[in-house]
């Protein structure tokens, strides 16, 4: 990694760019500075088409405008975060901002200004790096260091929103009058400029609305979710093909194999990959992925590719590492499969959101009673939640640009709500018998099984977006054998 010449230039500063403390060059001569100003080709992009989702983002902004008439609305993308010294974490724009604009660059801010019956939208962005003051080659975020930014004119064409210089925004916000709302938690500078104009309660109403507005996906979003799932299916196939290499190394080989698919076909993984072999499968969010991969154990792989537009899959399969389930592994696996079948069948328009969870939990409770692990009847087990010692988590969640999407929605519209066509959720029951659980027979201990699919609510029922991955035990074994062959 090359050593940066200078720290970043302060916004709106006329001061010369300062040499970093331990840089190898003592400064920039007047002759070099002058030389760097000229001799560069015109690279303005003039034949740009709007992004594919431009019509959808415009419709989303219109719905937002209708909900908050006469109020200024401020939605930031967020800023870079330091990982270590002068290196930053990979940037991911706030979901609210990306959903409303399609833009993903740091420091961006969408502002909806009240105008007439609605609002006028402006997207505030950093313009191209300045060639006159040397920013483009001296600043740590200049384009010769991190890549070319779109010009404001280009951005306006791409996103269908007039673009302005974000460095001018704090002053404009400080001078703003009338009611204002901001999405908090992403841009401290923006919030500071509005500190005397906003309230936590009003800002939370904006955040909740934007979360609930994403509950029902439009056609573009459904297409992106399917794209994410299709790449994820290929990622699972990649993993099965290299299980022998994982046995020779560790769970990290599985994680790395899936990550390659995510980066080649998408933006990233949608969340930290869970590559849990053996008893690690009993840890719900096992992301250390540093354990051994042994023949005869199960591998619980919970992973999802995130598309370039931020939509993520979330799929889990529990696979026999040697390709064949043992008798006790299949017994537990089949119970989880039956529970998932019951849960998926309960996903349909007009059903309560909780129905799929209740259906899956009932099946698991029945099996636990049948196996003598908990005293029945089943109704008593469910009423007291006794099955949760081994089922632990809820049976699913909404899915979209966040892996746990729409999390800020009101309880009455989410978990106590009703399913509608266009909603996308996971159905993911599991059974987890901890290695140190003395209440179960020894043969159960250390076995964890989860099966998870991404389910779209349709007009007449549901569609399993991840149906291309086998689920039934015998189909899983045949699929693995075919891939290894």
TrEMBL record:
Catalytic activity: Release of any N-terminal amino acid, including proline, that is linked to proline, even from a dipeptide or tripeptide
Gene3D superfamilies reported for this sequence: Creatinase/methionine aminopeptidase superfamily (3.90.230.10), Creatinase/prolidase N-terminal domain (3.40.350.10)
Broad class of enzyme this protein falls into: hydrolase
Region (Disordered) location: 1-25
Stretches assigned to the Aminopeptidase P N-terminal domain: 52-191
PROSITE patterns reported in the protein's UniProt record: PROLINE_PEPTIDASE
Needed co-factor(s): Mn(2+)
Signal peptide residues on this chain, from the entry's feature table: none
A GO term for molecular function: aminopeptidase activity
CDD domains, per the entry: Prolidase
UniProt keyword list: Aminopeptidase, Hydrolase, Manganese, Metal-binding, Protease
SMART domains referenced in this protein's UniProt entry, alphabetically: AMP_N
EC number: 3.4.11.9
The family this protein is said to belong to: Belongs to the peptidase M24B family.
Protein name: Xaa-Pro aminopeptidase
Organism: Streptomyces levis
